């Protein structure tokens, strides 16, 4: 998207799309409503660069990053937001007519000394979501990967990381020579935007890398595909060895959100109509869900493709 200046082009995609994954909306938390105004007929899940460390309207620099998934309102009942992720990675679960997990990503750029570690951390966050959903769901990963699946470029360390990740996770991609990124200076072009999936049969069709057009002020062009959701899912399982470990940061708990979530869950459970075992399982799941929503977690073990990051870098 690359900022509110491209709002008209994003709005033009609404009529022909059931689901839109957006990267680089450049909005802060207090500005999120403006994206809802751009896509008035859609509901959405939005994360901003300051989602986990909110910035006030008085100290804000120019906006950066941010991801969002928007969907037509007829899809709202079977869709739920997945709490996992970060301000670069956001995911939703579509529960019917078949189970699908859609992950929208905006991966780190290759322009800082820390980008290798940042990219690895993002891959570990994605792999954590895959490990939870890949057996039971079709997985679709959409977005700006800031790395290419074409022959890797010697100067870009992200290419190797992305290609190794796609191979290890058994992800499928559409092969094309078309470009998706055109630097505004005209000095560079590349293919870095993808729609990946884990299905063993034809799940995506009509894959298209769109042409540049005057109304699109972004340096990226849209990539689109149709999901064939009526067929029975037969997914490839993610290898169990690809696991990240997280430590729950109880000291940073949002107590009000934690208590409110538990109270809301308990209000919907009639203990008298359930057995003791059922009620105990319900309470355990209730506490787990509340912790997922209200307590941040930190990666304490990274296992990227063919390597492991030192915990001293965290």
From TrEMBL:
Molecular functions per Gene Ontology: catalytic activity
Listed InterPro entries: Endo/exonu/phosph_ase_sf, Endo/exonuclease/phosphatase
Domain Endonuclease/exonuclease/phosphatase: 17-201
Protein name listed in UniProt: Endonuclease/exonuclease/phosphatase domain-containing protein
């Amino acid at each position: 998207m690359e900022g509110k200046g491209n709002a008209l082009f994003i709005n033009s995609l609404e009529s022909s799309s059931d689901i839109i994954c957006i990267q680089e909306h450049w909005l802060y938390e207090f500005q999120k409503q403006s994206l809802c105004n751009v896509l008035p007929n859609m509901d959405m899940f939005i994360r901003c660069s300051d989602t986990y460390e909110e910035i006030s309207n008085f100290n804000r620099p120019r906006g950066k990053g941010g991801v969002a998934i928007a969907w037509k309102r007829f899809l709202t009942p079977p869709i739920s937001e997945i709490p996992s992720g970060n301000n670069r990675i956001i995911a939703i679960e579509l529960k019917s007519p078949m189970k699908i997990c859609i992950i929208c990503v905006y991966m780190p750029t290759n322009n800082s000394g820390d980008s290798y570690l940042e990219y690895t951390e993002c891959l570990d966050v994605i792999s954590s979501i895959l490990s939870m959903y890949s057996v039971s769901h079709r997985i679709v990963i959409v977005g700006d990967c800031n790395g290419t699946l074409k022959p890797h470029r010697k100067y870009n360390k992200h290419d190797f990381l992305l290609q190794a990740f796609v191979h290890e996770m058994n992800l499928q991609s559409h092969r094309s020579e078309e470009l998706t990124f055109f630097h505004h200076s005209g000095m560079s072009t590349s293919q870095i935007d993808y729609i990946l999936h884990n299905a063993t049969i034809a799940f995506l069709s009509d894959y298209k890398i769109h042409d540049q057009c005057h109304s699109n002020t972004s340096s990226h062009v849209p990539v689109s595909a149709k999901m064939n959701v009526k067929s029975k899912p037969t997914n490839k399982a993610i290898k169990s060895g690809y696991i990240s470990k997280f430590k729950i940061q109880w000291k940073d708990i949002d107590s009000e959100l934690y208590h409110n979530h538990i109270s809301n869950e308990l209000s919907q459970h009639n203990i008298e109509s359930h057995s003791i075992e059922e009620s105990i399982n319900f309470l355990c799941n209730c506490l787990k869900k509340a912790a997922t929503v209200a307590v941040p977690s930190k990666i304490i073990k990274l296992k990227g493709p063919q390597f492991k990051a030192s915990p001293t870098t965290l």
